[in-house]
Design brief:
single chain, mainly alpha, 2 domains, about 0% strand, elongated
Length: about 90
């Protein structure tokens, strides 16, 4: 189906007859239901009359890097401690 028609449906811009026909088809057509679900996700990220899609914000890369550095530091310390205790003479 034409994506513009799905967006018009979501914006309530379809004439009543077309809307009813689309809703009838949606009840039976699984593929069309999937297409509408994707259109809804895209539609949720749109603002106003613009067709610009705003994606969800990425997590703070600096915070993500800090967490990775802490994990790395922890693993290095763990390896050093294990090496020290495992290499003792018996």
């Amino acid at each position: 189906m034409n994506p513009d028609k799905l967006f018009d449906y979501l914006d309530d811009r379809l004439p009543a007859a077309e809307r009813a026909a689309l809703e009838e088809r949606l009840m039976l057509d699984k593929q069309l239901q999937r297409e509408l679900a994707v259109a809804r996700q895209i539609h949720a990220g749109m603002r106003g009359d613009s067709r610009e899609v705003l994606l969800a914000a990425r997590p703070d890369v600096t915070e993500q890097g800090r967490k990775m550095a802490l994990r790395d530091k922890f693993m290095r310390a763990r390896r050093a401690i294990l090496a020290k205790f495992c290499s003792r003479p018996k």
